[in-house]
Amino acid sequence: MTATTPAARQGATGHIQRSATPDDQPSASLDRPQSIAAPLMEIRDLVVSIGEHQVVAIRELDIPAGRRVALIGESGAGKTVAALSLLDLQPRVARVTGSVRLEGLELIGMPDRQLNRIRGSEVGVVLQDPASALNPVMKVGRQIDEALRMHHRTSRRERRERVLELMEQVQLPDPERLRRRFPHQLSGGQRQRVMIAIAIACRPRLLIADEPSSALDVNVQAEILDLLVRLSDEQGMSLLLISHNLGVVRSMCDDVAVLYGGQLMERGPSRVVVDQPRHRYTQALIKANPDQLADSPVERTLTHPLWPIPGETPSVGQFPSGCHFRDRCTHALDPCADELPITRTVETRTFSCWNPAPAAEPEANVEETAG
């Protein structure tokens, strides 16, 4: 692929121009070397504030092209607000500062008219609850068609063919019949598949999926997650998955970023972070959810005791100074209360902790930056 400057990609209309189709992109793989995938989206010093309180403060996070990245943490960690703020979809009372660049194009502060060209076309979004996201009085086929009309000048016949193609792509049965139905006439899993069809209608480079399977039963959850992996691989599409399930993250995502109280605690390759956590919050999160990583019910019961995290996640504005996790951490030191932890980078993993869990092996070339 020939390199292009941000200005060339932006073009005269501000719409990012592709130099290759999705079919030309390499398939994502958990075993692919990190160096192959360049950043598609670069997040720097992202701060989301409500009034005087910071609800998200992410210093640095990259979403590489064609890779799957998970944003994980407890409820109230700031995952959804952080993800929505990337496209200026956060609550109106929230204020966003910092930098979010999509292939070099700055999104923070971009006019709505220009940003609307990117939403849906370059970045798709799948929300947690399809029942509230879909229009209840519009047939689902028309809702998919609407996503196409917003970004493409094609004939009605071409759009109808594309709608049926998308419904088949997300494995909806009998698309010709189903497209004429209203959302309430579909099952929860079918509604979520419609949401995914809308999100990928314009072949986006990045798909943001906010807990896409949490409201579904276990069997349907697995089907939806398998579908997202397949679409990511087939289209070379990056995926930002918002989740609280460590087992899902470890099995389907290349990289993981652990969030607590809006602070980025640890990030790196998912299997490295989940199998050998260094931040005390990541470690506590794994101990509190051992069943998500066990291979069988017997293993869950006999070899993975439950260690609940003390206390509860504070409300906005109630997090302690310094490390936000220190009041619930059993390994907290005096410096944890005074200032933000130093950030250590070891090869492809980064964590911010004054008293990290011991490394499995001796570490070399450790880089440290102030909190």
TrEMBL record:
This is ABC transporter ATP-binding protein. Residues 1-32 are annotated as: Disordered. It is found in: Cell membrane. Residues 16-28 have a biased composition (Polar residues). Keywords: ATP-binding, Cell inner membrane, Cell membrane, Membrane, Nucleotide-binding, Translocase, Transport. It is a peripheral membrane protein. NCBIfam families: oligo_HPY. The keyword ATP-binding applies. Pfam families: ABC_tran, oligo_HPY. GO terms for biological process: peptide transport. Residues 41-286 form the ABC transporter domain. It comes from the Bacteria. One of its GO terms (molecular function) is ATP hydrolysis activity. Its main location: membrane. Transmembrane segments: none annotated. Belongs to the ABC transporter superfamily.
